Amino acid sequence: MPHLLGISGSLRRASYNTALLQAASALAASPVTFEIATLHGIPLYDGDREQAEGLPDAVSALKARIAAADGVILATPEYNNGIPGVFKNAIDWLSRPASGIPTLFGNRAFALIGASPGGFGTLSSQSAWLPVLRTLGVRQWNGGRLLVARAGEAFDAEGALVDEATRRRLSAFVADFAAFARTGDGTGDARG
């Protein structure tokens, strides 16, 4: 039974990316389990703080959730055509100590999705993540891309995903990624 973890890269209460993960969780078909994490409570990375105090509790808790997952979906906003600082900061903390990178990230299935009010979705942000994920040694799923442009039209005021075409694409994305996370065959297509 594949267990997926979705991490939202936005701290905003009404985040489109958190809403996208909530929709993904609702669309995940049994036997897939899907949980959602946020970055709340993770401080700015400070090597002196790490040396003096070790990892913050919020970082240790997120590391444990990643370690328990077969696959991780990063729901990335796009700020100034790149990765949001808060999201990259969290990954910097999660990669500490560096000796633990192979255990936490190495060969773990990762995928990218994102929603943005703009017309290009999160194309630049998702592209900017690729060298970071490569450096961490994840098993990057390249079987699909999910970019939600004009997110204000795809979600209603309560954060529900109302665009039917996006719902279908998201459902297929989750199913295909879950199959990739489970089998690790690299095809990225559960439907054959």
Summarize the structure.
The chain is of the alpha/beta class.
Characterization of the model:
There is one protein chain. This protein has about 190 residues and is α/β, with parallel strands linked by helices. It has a single domain (about 5-185), classed as Rossmann fold (3-Layer(aba) Sandwich). It contains eight helices and six strands, in the order E-H-E-H-H-E-H-H-E-H-E-E-H-H. The chain has helices at about 15-25, 45-55, 55-65, 85-95, 100-105, 125-135, 150-155, 165-185, and strands at about 5-10, 35, 70-75, 110-115, 140, 145-150. Strands 1, 2, 3, 4, 5 and 6 form a six-stranded parallel sheet that branches. The model is unreliable at about 185-190 (pLDDT under 50).
